[in-house]
Amino acid sequence: MTAVRVSAPGKLFLLGEYAVLDGAPALLAASEQRVTATVSEAQSWSLTSHGIGAGSIELGRNGTLPHDLDERESLNLRLFDEVRRCVEENFGEADRAFDIIIDSSALHDRGRKLGLGSSAAVAVALTTALARIRGIVLDPSELFTLAHSAHRASQGGSGSGGDIAACIYGGVILYTPDHVPAAVSLPAGTRILAVSTGGGSSTADLIGEVENYRVRAPEQYRRDMAALRKLAASASGALDSTAGLMRLADGYFDALAALAEHSGAGIVTARHLELRRLAARYDAVFKPGGAGGGDLGLVFAKLESVDELESAFTEAGALVIFVPSDADGVRVELA
Asked: How confident is the model at residue 199 (pLDDT cuts 50, 70, 90)?
């Protein structure tokens, strides 16, 4: 094999964020927007990145990053380097040089991340591509172990692995740490919209602030996490009806708001509160998506109200992204 291209979807945390870090289940969906990683045999190692770094660079032996990168470039390419290192540690040095192209631009809008988990998608697509070009076919559990390890290392050791699992398996999954994800279905008549709220946030920073809160106020932290875990544990049962899922999402917003208030982390913003009020006018429910902060929110609605909701949120300055229920997971597209 002289060339391989792999794509992986973005992800959306529908329910269970933060609680999943404490071992609770989380409900996730894969997005239609995808990252691609293309690896081809070449005379020397090189990397071109769209979305995660600065154009094209020549790589060192075995794909190592050049020593003269500035701090920002090194930080942007840390995920690439961790994936490369992880594959090499598990399968040995490559016997050929490769040209690598990573394109995560579909998960960005005008240079800003949409909050769809571009780093997890890159980790999954690139791990698969670097293994497949060597003739190694990873099963889902092997891929999860490698991609999750590299992704966590690039994020400073944080992350539940739910985003990696969503990128691998696709569709809608119920994910519990250290368990094989279960494929599930949303209730008939339910529609979920992702709305890019116009800001930006760092998942690692927000998780770090919550971790600081755990150390600073352990009793209050345990009470907040117990509330989130209880709600997350009911996600499976809430999939029986649209009304049940919407009630759960609304309750989860309140529990996240409590965690945000007590921890001082910017999980719930003024923009989130504004969009929650907007959704309520159409009998829909809004909540932050993923770690929260400024980048992404979710709207849970009945199918018949979707057109009105899309118009209302667009007029409010939000970018609306429809959440599919059957998006493919990682796939090899060209070899």
From this structure: low
